[in-house]
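[Protein data]
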Amino acid sequence: MIRKMIMLALLGLLAIGLDFAMATNINSIPLIQDKSGLYMLRPEEGSPSGQINLRAKVDTKGKSISNTYAITLDPHVVGNNPDSRVAEKGESKGEMSREELVAFEMRSIISSLNDDTSFRKVKLPDRLDTGETIEWSVVRRTNTVAIAFAVIVIGILLFLNRNRATRKQLEAEQDAISRQLPEFINRLVLLLNAGLVLNTAFEKAIERGCESPSSNDDFFYEQMDEILCRIRQTNGSVNKEFREFARSRRSAGGEIAKELMRISNIISDNISKGVGLTDKLQQEGEILWLNRKRDCEERGRVAETRLTLPLTLQLLVLIIITVSPALLEL
């Protein structure tokens, strides 16, 4: 978890750095401020054109009009003659509103910046022809806030889902136990009814279960096989090993832990008090089968709910395919 958070922070810093570098690269024209005003410096001869984003704020009759302009400056060319261009045509200035007139004047200023490339320094006018003052400022279009917000949101999601893999593993383990335990108890009851003692019946039930094709890579039978190995190596007790397994599942939580503890208590009562084992296990097996049937029905209902949307989409597609030829003939 800590490693993921560190990687996320590093990726966020890298993204912010790249975004800042791209914003700086876009504003590739240097600005020079002196007593006479604000100047832009053209790229050197042979270099590509430079770009810069500037915001112009015009104060007119107590109202501020602010717009952003993407300015492109051609490279400096020594001895280049001024470009004679036809003035922008449009509606008469007398028919323009104040905002439209300011926008017209600003477009004229921007379009005239490359008329004469013989001067390296290009002065940005501080007033319009109508006398309104212009304040220029550089616009850096960075996405730092958006990137930081995205990193924070992803970090919160990672923190909330930090135990997701563990929870999914526990759910898979509980599902494996719930699926195999009823069959295992029934097999144990059959072996006990056949006259085998508890330890032998337990070993045979595990061996038969591990030989079943459905037990391949199954968590329950992997645990049972480990219990069987410990019993054979240490000549231990079935009751003790099974109780330890039940306790470990109880610490993990889930309904199946209660069922394991009940089975462990039934075996303990048989060993210590002589309580009938076969009948008790048979009753417990019936309860487990009912629980398994109920879980299957619930999963079936959930599957039906999840299929509602795909079936609805398929129905809409079928309706469209059926109705389209008739609509095309109209």
